[in-house]
Specification:
Blueprint (H helix, E strand, L loop, with lengths): L7 E9 L3 H11 L4 H10 L5 H19 L6 E10 L3 E6 L5 E6 L2 E9 L1 H22 L9
Antiparallel strand pairs: 1-5, 2-5, 3-4
Subunit structure: Part of the 50S ribosomal subunit.
Subcellular location: Plastid, Chloroplast
Family: Belongs to the universal ribosomal protein uL22 family.
């Protein structure tokens, strides 16, 4: 029995202390790009959100290398998502014994990468399966059928 190889690998970053909107601004730029191009973009962008996203992309590539044995050249960012996390609430002391609230927003990042080279292998496996199934259906007698 031929097995399909899993083509997608992901990395999760949870409770990252930045707002989801600021992270989305960077994530929208890298979605659908190759691994090497993404690293270049993240190094050159001037936003604070780039560093945690850079670490996540690097981690997803390491996961792909370890789990699937894929090369970084063949990796593509298939899905990149940002969700809002819980808001940390603190109080800052003010004049006359009062306090004012401080809200620190957090976000959850998900980066999913897929290997482009495995797509071609899956197509070859599927075409082999179809050919084998077609040959089995045509012959009714097994070994004794001759053409």
């Amino acid at each position: 029995m031929l097995k399909k190889k899993k083509r997608e690998v992901y990395a999760l970053g949870q409770h990252i202390s930045m707002s989801a909107d600021k992270a989305r601004r960077v994530i929208d730029q890298i979605r659908g790009r190759s691994y090497e191009e993404t690293l270049l973009i993240l190094e050159l962008m001037p936003y604070r959100a780039c560093y945690p996203i850079f670490k996540l992309v690097y981690s997803a590539a390491a996961n792909a290398n370890y789990n699937m044995g894929s090369n970084e050249v063949n990796l593509l960012i298939s899905k990149a998502e940002v969700h809002e996390g819980p808001t940390r609430k603190k109080f800052k002391p003010r004049a006359r014994g009062r306090s004012s609230p401080i809200k620190r927003s957090t976000c959850h990042l998900t980066i999913e990468m897929k290997d482009i080279s495995l797509k071609d292998k899956d197509v070859e496996i599927n075409s082999l399966k179809k050919n084998l199934d077609g040959k089995r259906k045509k012959s009714s007698g097994g070994l004794w059928d001759k053409k």
